[in-house]
Each structure stands twice: as C-alpha cells, then as structure tokens.
Design goal:
Distance between the termini of chain B: 56 Å
CATH superfamily of chain B: Thiamin diphosphate (ThDP)-binding fold, Pyr/PP domains
Helix content of chain B: 40-55%
Strand content of chain A: 15-25%
CATH topology of chain B: Rossmann fold
CATH architecture of the largest domain in chain A: 3-Layer(aba) Sandwich
CATH class of chain B: Alpha Beta
Strand order of the largest sheet of chain A: 3-2-4-5-7-6-12
Strand content of chain B: 5-15%
Largest interface: A-B, 46 and 48 residues
CATH architecture of chain B: 3-Layer(aba) Sandwich
Number of helices of chain A: 12
Largest sheet of chain B: 7 strands, mixed
CATH topology of the largest domain in chain A: Rossmann fold
Shape of chain B: globular
Structural class of chain B: alpha/beta
Number of strands of chain A: 14
Radius of gyration of chain B: 20 Å
CATH class of the largest domain in chain A: Alpha Beta
CATH superfamily of the largest domain in chain A: Thiamin diphosphate (ThDP)-binding fold, Pyr/PP domains
Number of helices of chain B: 13
Number of domains of chain A: 2
Strand order of the largest sheet of chain B: 2-3-1-4-5-9-8
Shape of chain A: globular
Helix content of chain A: 25-40%
Oligomer: heterodimer
Order of helices and strands of chain A: EHEHEHEHHEHEHEEEEHEEHEHEHH
Distance between the termini of chain A: 52 Å
Structural class of chain A: alpha/beta
C-alpha cells in the first residue's frame, strides 16, 4: 500500500478524524476549538466535519472543562480535552491529579477515567515564562496518569489514537517545535498503549542519547552531525514517560557505556534525573566509562528577550558539544 | 428580581428555634412516606453506629457524619433512577445509603475491608456504587462538581434522559471551580441538579465568617439557573421540590439547583460535637437544631394522620438496630484487601 505524506500537525489531525469517525463516544473539549488558530493545523475544520456537539469550544474554564472530561469518561465516553498551552492547564490540576489519576485505585479498580489530556508545549518567540513551560516531569511523578510524548510524525498520530483508546487517563504532550517534520505514513493500525516502550531511533555504538518529545528530535539532529565526525550515537526516544520502562535504555548503555540525557524541562528535580537514577540503580557497577551527563533548561523561568531566550533553550550544538566532551573528543 | 431579594439572608430558615413543628405530608402517598422514614432511620442509626465505632477506636480513618441531614439525600433520591450519575463529597454516607441502604457494605468499607463498597480501598471518604447510580465521592471540596457536569453532558450526548447530581456544601461555593462548573453547565444545557446542603458550617467556620450572605442560591441567579430554596429537614418539601426540578432537567431544560438548609449534629469529623473548636457553634444551637429533627417531624405528621404509630416505630427501630449489629459484626470479621492491592488498581486491568 502506498504511504501518504504527513507533517506532525496533519498526523495529529488524521488521528482525530480517525477517532471521531470510528468511535461515537469520542468527543473533544477545550478552548479555541471552533477557531483553531490556537493549535496550528492539528484540528482544522473538525467542528464543521463532526459538529459542535462533539467538538466543544468552552468558556475560559480549564478546571471545569477538564473535570467535565473526567466525569464524561466515567459515564462511558472517550473525551479528549485540549489545552493549547500547558501553562494554562495548571488551573486543572485537581481534575487531573487528585481525581483522574487516583480514581481507579481509590475505588478498587471499579472505574477508570479513560480521558486523554492533550497538553501542548508552545514556547519560543519571546513569549516568556507563562507561555513556554514543559512540565512533563511533574505529571510523570503521578501514579495512575500515563504520560506520552510523541517525537515523530508516526507517533504523533499513532500514540494519540492509542492514548484515546487506553482505559486509563493519559496526558499526551506535543511540542509545537516538532510540527514541521514530515514523513510518509502507512494506513492506521491501532496499537495498545500498554505495550508501547522507548524505541531506538538511530543505532550507534559510542554513546546513548536519551530524550523525549522535542529533545529526542534534537538528539536525532545531533546524531547526524556527529556521524560525519565518526561518532556513532544511539538515540533512544522515550515516547512513554509514565509508567517508564527502562530495559531498552539499560541494554543500550551496557553496549555504549556512555550516557547523555536531554530534557526540555528544567534541570533540578527533572525527568533527566529520573532516567539517570533508574539506570545507575540498575546498571552493573563500573559499567559506565564516563559519568552520565544531562542537558536540560537552566533553573529559571523562560526569559522573553531574544538573546536571553536563544541562550536559554537547548540547541543541537549543545548536544554535539556535550557528546564530544563526554567522549573526550573536544578540541581545546 | 431585585438585587436585595437575590442576596438577602436566610433569616428564619437559619434560625435554630424555628421549624420544629411536624411537616405537611399532603399529596404524598403512604408508601413513599414510609419508605422515606425507613431510609432516614437507617441512615441515622448507621451514622450513630459509626460514631460509636470511632469513639471506641474500632475505626482507623476519619468519618464525616451527617446525622441530622438525612432528609436531603432521602428526599432527592426518591426521584432518581439507577442510571443517573450521582457524585458526593467528604460527607456522603447518606448520599450513598439513600440510593442503596446497604449499611453492611458501608461498614466494611469504613473498616477497610475487601467486601466494602470500594473493595476496601476507599474508606469513608471514597465511596462507589455505580450499579445504583453512585459514581463516586471524594474529599477534595468541590472536586466532583465538574465531574458531575461532565457526566451530565455525557448523558445528554447519549440522548438518554439520565441526569447528573452532585451534592455540595455551603463551603464549596468558596472554590472557584464551582462557578466555572455552574457556567459551563448552563452554557452546555447539561442535565444536572446541584444539591446544596447548606449546614451553615465549613469544617469549624460559620458561614457568616466566610461569606457576605448565607444564601448559596444567589449563585444560581448569577448563572440564570432555576433554583429552589427549602427547609432541608423537611423530607417532603425536599422530595417535592427536587421532583419538580428533576422533571424539568429530564425534559431537557438544562441545569437546576436546590438549596437545602440543615445542620449537622456531630462536628466536622468523627463523633465529637465540636463545641470547643467550632467558631460560632454552641451547645444551645445544637440542642435547638436537634428539635428540627427530620425523622421526628415526619414521624409525628404520619402519626397524626394515623398512617403510622409509636408502636410501629418502636418495632422498626428494634429491627434496624438488630440488623446493624449483625452487619457490624460481620464486617469486623471480613478480610482486608490482599497485599498486592496497592499496586494492582493504579492502572486498568489488561
């Protein structure tokens, strides 16, 4: 079968269309859905195709909209709640953390809130502290809440479908810096989110670079550059941050004996720490040739001014330099 | 409507010296009255048993008792179906028992036993009985309010005539999400009844110290939501008023709110009366409020009309006491959840 060309954004759109067409219990709720300039090209015309009863643009009420999605899921629907910026979603913490994540265990597994929370990271462009945050680490801390960060065009589509069909509450986090990627995708095949694991994006022997979402995109870009200098990196895309499965990363590091973790959140108490800790706990002593290194954001809110912003965010160059430093191949 | 009428105070309804007399039971059939009386007595005795269990250190976790407030859940539930979606809060024993008076499963749950409503994973504050329409109660104040709105929206999307119901207290409207939820429910025309149990207290604090008016239904007016304000210790007026509102909700008219004035006989949590820690809670008030007893007021009215008798009530009381005793003993002996339960229920089964 001939594959069709998508970018990351239209891949998300195609997942929405597939779900809405096939599952009458799917509906989408959130702000900006009847005028979706908020969300790039990922939801164009869904309201016209599927009706405003199923594509619900809401009042400026993140908390009630998210709570309503939790409640609707308990009453048999498969809701997707869209937060065009993760920063505003913080108003909905109670519905996500206290309610959705805890629900199954509190009632002895008798009910599962199978909602999907689509949280968009939308940063850069001198937008500053409240229009930029990547808070996946917070949510990966919460038992009961599955956290997914697609980094490729294929995952943008397939993990969204898997998230919506999963019985547990899932937070699906997409980063707008990924939207321009293009790829050819086969027809949709439903996959079970429970069986989804980290994946090797690029095979290599010298060092393992681990990332999720946009960080794993940066890792792939860095790998291409490093390859030209005969440094072969193995890039691992985490894909599912919670519950985190580490066996593949462990195997890779046992082979390369070097580890660099990249994360789009802040450094302290961040997701990079979780990966390094789990590996240090599980790997044989002295398995690593060099100390593991993490690259994440400085422990500061995102600045607005152009120059400060440029220094603040991680670049492919940062990864290339860090890799060479670990491997002691940096020219003085 | 003029603004003064909207925000003015409850006046007599919140005066503990008023509303002590028997109630009017006109146009309600004998069977319904007897059923409501029976369920209220079961709830009262269950709560008292739990108070006794807590006082004697037989119960580990906190119990928020609702003795004195039975008429609300009983009157409202009389109009509900098993397919409706009912959500509670921290003080929800009565909300659940009014739908399914299975005190044995409540005792088991409160004692942390596998045989409880939530398989021993919830205790008093996390109750679940979906087959009877009880979708869940949790202790975060107002936490279930948007959930109930969403469940109501789901019912509407499925084109069923089921409704959402959420019990909230006077303290809940001090949480922002309640106002978001009122607004969302109205704009979505969600079939939901907001049941406000206004017992004048949030934990230890009297409403006069927390809000500029003690009338919660003023917020319904702000959202153009139809509402009724009633004596919450009159089971017949609760039943009749909620019936009217529920009928209109089922017919597609959108959300409604009922505010019911009541008082809790025990303190905020456990068996004590909280005279010491309650701000503006006095023994005199508690005594007077006990004269506005929803059970005695109904019973006296029924005796007056000769459809009930002191003798019958004595027999009923003895019968329920015995059943409660047996259920408690059974629950005490029941097994705890298996050791793997903590991790087992975090995610859905394969």
């Amino acid at each position: 079968m001939k594959n069709k060309k998508y970018n990351y954004g239209t891949a998300i759109l195609s997942a929405f269309e597939y779900l809405l067409k096939k599952y009458p219990e799917v509906f989408i709720i959130g702000q900006g859905l009847w005028s979706p300039w908020y969300v790039g090209n990922t939801m164009t015309n869904l309201d016209k195709k599927f009706g405003v009863e199923r594509i619900i643009d809401t009042p400026v009420s993140e908390s009630a909209s998210t709570g309503a999605a939790v409640g609707a899921s308990l009453a048999g629907m498969k809701p997707i709640v869209v937060h065009p910026r993760m920063d505003f979603m913080l108003y909905a913490m109670d519905a996500m953390v206290n309610q959705a994540a805890n629900w199954s265990q509190m009632f002895g597994g008798q009910a599962n809130p199978n909602l999907t929370i689509r949280a968009i990271i939308n940063r850069g462009g001198e937008q500053g502290a409240q229009h930029s945050q990547a808070l996946h680490a917070w949510f990966s801390h919460v038992p009961g809440l599955r956290v997914v960060m697609p980094s490729t065009v294929a995952d943008a589509r397939d993990l969204l479908i898997a998230s919506v069909l999963c019985k547990d509450p899932v937070m699906y986090i997409d980063d707008r810096w990924l939207y321009d990627q293009e790829d050819y995708l086969p027809t949709i095949k439903e996959i079970d989110l429970k069986n989804q694991n980290p994946k090797i994006s690029i095979k290599g022997k010298d060092i393992t670079i681990v990332g999720s979402g946009h960080s794993s995109f940066l890792a792939r870009e860095a790998a291409k550059i490093l390859k030209k200098e005969n440094i072969y990196t193995e890039v691992i895309d985490i894909r599912v941050l919670n519950p985190l499965k580490t066996s593949l990363i462990k195997k890779s590091v046992m082979k390369t004996k070097n580890l660099l973790v990249v994360d789009s959140g802040w450094t302290s108490g961040g997701f990079s720490a979780e990966i390094i800790t789990k590996l240090v706990e599980e790997l044989p002593t002295n398995c690593l040739k060099n100390s593991p290194v993490r690259i994440a954001l400085p422990d500061a809110p995102a600045p607005t001014s152009k120059l400060l912003e440029k220094n603040y965010y991680t670049s492919t160059d940062d990864l290339v330099r860090a890799t060479k430093k670990i491997l002691k191949k940096l020219k003085r | 409507m003029n603004l003064k009428n909207i925000i003015n105070d409850l006046k007599e309804l919140s005066n503990p010296k008023k509303y002590h007399n028997p109630i009017s039971i006109k146009n309600v059939n004998k069977k319904t009255l007897q059923k409501m009386l029976n369920t209220m007595i079961i709830i009262r005795k269950t709560e008292n048993k739990l108070a006794w269990g807590k006082r004697n250190n037989l119960i580990g976790g906190p119990v928020h008792l609702g003795a004195g407030q039975e008429a609300i859940a009983v009157g409202v539930s009389q109009n509900l179906k098993k397919t409706d979606h009912v959500f509670g809060a921290h003080r929800s024993h009565s909300h659940l028992l009014a739908l399914n008076p299975n005190f044995y499963k409540l005792f088991a749950e409160v004692l942390g036993k596998k045989t409880g409503f939530s398989k021993g994973m919830g205790g008093s504050m996390h109750l679940f009985d979906k087959s009877n329409g009880f979708y869940g109660s949790v202790p975060i104040v107002a936490g279930t309010v948007p959930l109930a709105v969403g469940a109501a929206m789901a019912a509407k999307m499925k084109k069923k005539r089921d409704i959402g119901v959420v019990y909230i207290g006077d303290g809940s409207v001090e949480e922002g999400v309640v106002h978001e939820s009122f607004n969302l429910a109205k704009i979505q025309k969600a079939p939901i009844l907001f049941v406000v149990e206004n017992n004048l207290f949030a934990s230890h604090m009297h409403i006069s110290l927390r809000q500029p008016s003690d009338k919660i239904s003023r917020f319904a007016v702000a959202n153009n939501i139809p509402f009724k304000l009633e004596d919450g210790n009159n089971v017949v007026s609760v039943y009749k008023s909620s019936k009217k509102l529920i009928d209109s909700i089922r017919s597609g008219e959108g959300p409604a709110l009922i505010e019911l004035i009541t008082y809790r006989w025990y303190g905020h949590v456990d068996w004590r009366d909280d005279i010491d820690v309650g701000v503006k809670r006095s023994l005199k008030d508690v005594k007077n409020w006990k004269l506005r007893d929803p059970i005695q007021r109904l019973s006296k009215s029924m005796i007056k009309l000769d459809i009930w008798s002191k003798k019958k009530e004595e027999i009923l009381n003895n019968k329920i006491d015995k059943k409660i005793q047996t259920a408690w003993k059974k629950a005490i002996k029941d097994p705890y959840p298996s050791a793997d339960s903590t991790l087992k229920y975090v995610y859905s089964k394969k």
